[in-house]
Amino acid sequence: MSRIGPTFFFMNYKSLDIQKIRCVIQSxxxxxxxxxxxxxxxxEPLRVYPILFELEQSGWLEVTERSExxxxxxxxxxxx
Length: 80
What we know:
alpha+beta, 3 helices, 3-stranded antiparallel β-sheet, 3 strands
């Protein structure tokens, strides 16, 4: 049975943003400000903070400075 009609391919934009964020963080061994990370990575700004939370919970990321409300300000790759 042949299929007639368009074939849809779905992009996982969260996974692409995670790759972008990890690449930028790895290129800055001393860490960087989250505002710079948002600009340099090109990731969707609304996805950056949840992704940083997931990376921190997985042990890949270290938050070295937080705002008074707990949001990360400065991050770096966790040193093992």
